[in-house]
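Example record

The entry below shows one chain as it appears in the dataset: sequence first, then structure tokens.
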Amino acid sequence: MKLLLVPLLLASHLRADVIYETDFDDFATGANQWSANASWTSNDTTSGAQSIDEDVLPALLKTASLGFVRPARDVTFVALDLGYDHIASGAPLVEIDTLIGIEDSTNNRRDDFFISIYNSGGNRLASIRFDNEDPNSLNSQFGIWWENGTNQFDTLVDFIPSELFNLFATIDLESNTWSADIEGIPLFTDEQFTNTNNPLDFGFLAFEWDLTANATSLYGDNFLLVADVIVQSVIEIPELEVTHSFDPSGNVTLNWETAVGWGDKVQYSTDLNDWLDDLPDSAFDNVTNSSPVTFTDEGEEKGALRFYRVKRTQATS
């Protein structure tokens, strides 16, 4: 009898598709250059409040910054135009991964910085606010807050000025929930993403500088530094558990259950390197109902050793 080996379990896992990614290294350096890139826009393109800087930090070639100089407006934003349609893509789970830091003021005036999500109509849906108020002042709100469009909540987590940290957020546009952490420390988990009645889609990712003073002349020279930005959609591939047996002729039989909206394809290999998918009747595409599947390889030329696997891909129609 020829030896046939079969992998028995392919656990559920995630597939990520990058929507946008940058480390700013290909951006032009200088004042107002952050918004000069075609993917970004700003409401202040003249004051120098947003810029691309070079060699600010060791090991980082270029970084983006928002703040430091007197802005043209009391709220300055730089926004990434994503126009992401989670319904059309079938991937409502979106991840934001960014490396940021906040440099404290030297002129004793401190402001707020935001990472905000807007829909395609320009409506703010939710935000994470970094309040740079003097932590020693009376009733200080210094620290990190999250907002759902109508209410704000203290995460009880502070940031350290002048230090870069990784912010990671996951938004489920279908269930209207989101979670976020910095350096693995949870800020909030499975909270309501937006409490507004605005259409729920991911139009823009914005970095914002909000002055606490009522005049731009009273700006704080604090600033937000952004080193990397990655936005990606994530699809959870359903668990695929495969069992095997042999029929009376010695042919291997694979058994598993299909998943709604996914197609399965039996593949085989003799070396675990090159995989082929030309077995007759080995594709189970665009299933609408979960059901048990039995597949038997009845081919005569199997060789001395053959490995099998079932590859699961999202249905396209």
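Notes for this example: The two ends are 41 Å apart (CA to CA). Residues 238-314 form a domain with the Immunoglobulin-like fold (CATH 2.60.40.10).
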